[in-house]
Design a protein that fits this description.
By secondary structure, this protein is an alpha+beta fold. It has 6 helices and 9 strands, in the order E-E-E-E-E-H-E-E-H-H-H-H-E-E-H. Helix 3 crosses helix 4 and helix 4 runs antiparallel to helix 5. The structure holds adenosine-5'-triphosphate. Adenosine-5'-triphosphate binds next to helix 4.
């Protein structure tokens, strides 16, 4: 990634690349043409070309922003720093506009997924509450009902990123929204979640969503998860 041309001066707050930590923040100590000497907060002193250095927002809130479009600088170190700040306070979800970014917490956060939390998201416009898969599912559900058009939700990420967990969360919300008592007195929510439990269909190995066999290969290759209503 090429940094925009910015005139750094002594004292400028910046991000510099680091082979171990990815990015280190620091202050510009010296400017020699395009060469910057940066004193990093980690203690390291780094010399870097100005084209590889990125400005740091000195006023970034300590616990980050819930929508990255609010960041003063939308570059890689700024985005990663924001997600780190949120992760540190167990805020694993962040919007970038109407895209939801999920960070795997590697621990259970049951307070995020209770029935009461689900109810809070019902009918609330995206962005009014904290970023959450429930908000994405609610938005898709509302569009389907209001426009009468099928909706898809794409869940993408590398292996172990949390696609299956996010998908379960989306399904939980959609089942809750359609949740009148069904066969044998079980709610739709119970029935949908039991599909996961017993794996009645072929699970897509990209996202584990139970798919009928003919669509499995196509969905797997595209690494897509689709909710079709
Ligand atoms: N939101 C979450 N809350 C708690 N644990 C999570 C969450 N997301 C992911 N995890 C943990 O990370 C593990 C891997 O997540 P998951 O199976 O959803 O990844 P995946 O992207 O579907 O992986 P793969 O592509 O390999 O199937 C889960 O078994 C779970 O332990």
């Amino acid at each position: 990634m090429q940094a925009a041309t910015i005139n750094y001066t002594v004292g400028s707050l910046v991000w510099v690349e680091d082979p171990e930590e990815a990015w280190l923040d620091g202050n510009v100590l010296e400017v020699n043409g395009q060469e910057l000497k940066v004193q990093c907060t980690s203690g390291k002193t780094v010399t870097a070309n100005a084209s590889k250095v990125y400005p740091k927002d000195s006023e970034a809130p300590p616990s980050g922003v819930d929508d990255m479009t609010k960041l003063a600088y939308l570059h890689e170190p700024g985005v990663l720093d924001n997600m780190r700040r949120r992760y540190d306070v167990n805020e694993i979800y962040t919007y970038t506009g109407n895209i939801l970014i999920a960070v795997n917490p590697f621990k259970r956060l049951p307070q995020l997924y209770s029935g009461d939390v689900m109810k809070q998201y019902k009918g609330v416009p995206l962005g009014d509450l904290s970023p959450h898969p429930f908000a994405i599912a609610d938005g898709a559900y509302r569009l389907m009902v209001n426009e009468g058009i099928s909706q898809s939700i794409l869940v993408s990420g590398e292996s172990g990123a949390g696609k299956t967990e996010s998908t379960k969360c989306l399904m939980q919300y959609l089942a809750f929204m359609g949740g009148t008592a069904g066969a044998e007195g079980r709610t739709v929510e119970q029935q949908v979640l039991e599909v996961w439990k017993f794996r009645l269909y072929f699970p897509c190995s990209a996202c584990s969503f139970p798919l009928p066999a003919p669509t499995l290969k196509k969905r797997y290759m595209a690494n897509l998860f689709c909710v079709s209503f």
